[in-house]
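Hypothesis: this fold can be encoded by more than one sequence.
Test: take the C-alpha cells below, design a sequence, compare later.
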C-alpha cells in the first residue's frame, strides 16, 4: 500500500503485481537517499566505483544478510549475478551436467518448462513428472528421482499458475531449485539443496540482480569447458565482482533484506504471508462469484490465482478493482481470471481491502 504521488496525496495504491512487485516503502525511501548521496560520499550509489570500500562493505553486508536470514553455511557460496533467473536455466546445466549426462526435472509450470528446454541443449533431460495435463494446476506428488541424474531441478513456487511446493522432496541426487518467487517468504532448509537461484524482482528487490546460493563442492566436475561469464567458480573467486555488478539492484535488494530482518526474519514473513493467504483464500472459497484455479493443498501463498464463476463479469470486476486503486491483478493469459500476488512487502491491509472489494462486488451482482 503506497501513496501515489501522481494522484491526490491521500490516494492509496494496493499493488498486487506479480513482478516486478511491491517492495517495502522504507527500502524505497532509503534507496532514494542512496541515489542522491550514498553513505555521505556526496555521490550517488550509481556514480561510484564498485571497488570503493563504501560499496564493498554494502556488498559484504548483503551477502551476510542472505546467510543470516536463510541460515547459509560456509559450505555454500552466495552470489549476486545478472541475467535473471532465465540465465540460470542454462548456467545450471552448464556447470552441473556432464557431457552426455542426464538431469531430472519436475515440470510444474511455464518457468519450469523453460528450464527443461535450456537443459536440453546440454544433455538428456528426464522429466520425472509434470502437471501439464491439468494446465499446471497442481504439484505432482508420486514420482521417482533417478539416481543416475546429475541433479534434480524443481521450481518451488509457480508464479504464473499459483501453485507452491509446501514440502521439499528428499532427493538422492543434488537438488537444484528455482526459488524466484518465494525466496525469503518463509524459512528454508538450505542444506537440502545443492543450488538455489532467484531473480530478485519478485520478493527480494528490483529486476537486475539474481541471487545464487551454491554448494561449492558440487562445482568443477563436468569436464565441460565453460565460458567465463557462465562459470560459477569465476564468480565465486571474484566475490560477485568478476565484472561490474548490478550495483543499484543489489543495493535495493540489500535494503529490502534489512527490512525483512527488522520485521523478524523469514519466520515472521511466513506468519505474515500465511495470514494474508488465509484471509484471501477464505474469501475466494466463500464468494459465489469467484473460484480458485489450483488444487487446495498446493495453493501458493505468493500468487493466489482465481477465476469468476460468471466469466462475463471479469472485465467489470477488473474495472471495479482498478477504480479502488487495486492494481496488477489481471491473471496471466495462460490461466485467465485474476492473480493477486501477495509478496512479503504487501501488507495484510491491502489483502483485506481486496477482500472487501470482492464482497462489495458480489452484493452488487447478487
Ligand atoms: C519470474 C520468474 C522467472 C524468470 O525470471 P527472470 O529474472 O525474468 O529471468 C523464473 N522463474 C520463476 C519461478 C519466476 O517467477
Amino acid at each position: 500500500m503506497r501513496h501515489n504521488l501522481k494522484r491526490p496525496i491521500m490516494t492509496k495504491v494496493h499493488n498486487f503485481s506479480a513482478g516486478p512487485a511491491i517492495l517495502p516503502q522504507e527500502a524505497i525511501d532509503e534507496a532514494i537517499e542512496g541515489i542522491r548521496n550514498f553513505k555521505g560520499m556526496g555521490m550517488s550509489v550509481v556514480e561510484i566505483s564498485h571497488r570503493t570500500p563504501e560499496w564493498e562493505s554494502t556488498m559484504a553486508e548483503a551477502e551476510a544478510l542472505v546467510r543470516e536470514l536463510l541460515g547459509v553455511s560456509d559450505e555454500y557460496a552466495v552470489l549476486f549475478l545478472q541475467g535473471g533467473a532465465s540465465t540460470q536455466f542454462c548456467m545450471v546445466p552448464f556447470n552441473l551436467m556432464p557431457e552426455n549426462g542426464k538431469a531430472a526435472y519436475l515440470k510444474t509450470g511455464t518457468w519450469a518448462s523453460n528450464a527443461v528446454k535450456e537443459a536440453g541443449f546440454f544433455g538428456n533431460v528426464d522429466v520425472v513428472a509434470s502437471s501439464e495435463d491439468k494446465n499446471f494446476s497442481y504439484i505432482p506428488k508420486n514420482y521417482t528421482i533417478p539416481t543416475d541424474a546429475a541433479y534434480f531441478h524443481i521450481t518451488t513456487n509457480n508464479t504464473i499458475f499459483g501453485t507452491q511446493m509446501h514440502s521439499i522432496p528428499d532427493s538422492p541426487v543434488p537438488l537444484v531449485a528455482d526459488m524466484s518467487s518465494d525466496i525469503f517468504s518463509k524459512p528454508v532448509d538450505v542444506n537440502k539443496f545443492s543450488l538455489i537461484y532467484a531473480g530478485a524482482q519478485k520478493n527480494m528487490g528490483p529486476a537486475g540482480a539474481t541471487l545464487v546460493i551454491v554448494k561449492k563442492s558440487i562445482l568443477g566436475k563436468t569436464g565441460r569447458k565453460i565460458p567465463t561469464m557462465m562459470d560459477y567458480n569465476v564468480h565465486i573467486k571474484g566475490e560477485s565482482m568478476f565484472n561490474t555488478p548490478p550495483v543499484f539492484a543489489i543495493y535495493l535488494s540489500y535494503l529490502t533484506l534489512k527490512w525483512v530482518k527488522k520485521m523478524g526474519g523469514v519466520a515472521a514473513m511466513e506468519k505474515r504471508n500465511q495470514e494474508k493467504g488465509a484471509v484471501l483464500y477464505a474469501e475466494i472459497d466463500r464468494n459465489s462469484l469467484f473460484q480458485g484455479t489450483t488444487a487446495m493443498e498446493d495453493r501458493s501463498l505468493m500468487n493466489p490465482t482465481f477465476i469468476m464463476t460468471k466469466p462475463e463479469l471479469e472485465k467489470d470486476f477488473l474495472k471495479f478493482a482498478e477504480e479502488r486503486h487495486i492494481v496488477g491483478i489481471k491473471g496471466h493469459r495462460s490461466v485467465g481470471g485474476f492473480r493477486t500476488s501477495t509478496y512479503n512487502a504487501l501488507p495484510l491491509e491491502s489483502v483485506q481491502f481486496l477482500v472487501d472489494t470482492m464482497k462489495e462486488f458480489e452484493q452488487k451482482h447478487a
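The chain has two domains: 25-262, 265-365. The mean pLDDT is 96.
Hypothesis status: open.
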